[in-house]
User: Fold this.
Amino acid sequence: MFIEIITPDKKIFEGEVISAIFPGTDGSFQVLNNHASLISTLGKGNVNFVKTLSNKAEKVELEVDGGVVEILNNKVTVLAEKIIE
Assistant:
């Protein structure tokens, strides 16, 4: 599936991923390929995803401070309020 992570300032990441875990406001949840359509608010916490690079998988972790995630037709769009570094 394809994921795009955006803040009001810039695009943080876009690319193919195997799975992603989000800090929903009511608890964390995981998204895999062919997930049902969904829109959810995000709380403060870590977004974890496994990206694919030429037959290799790499785990990435970003801390977000709220936002919204939309899953639709194997495309995941994350609108994060900010990324905490």
The mean pLDDT is 95.
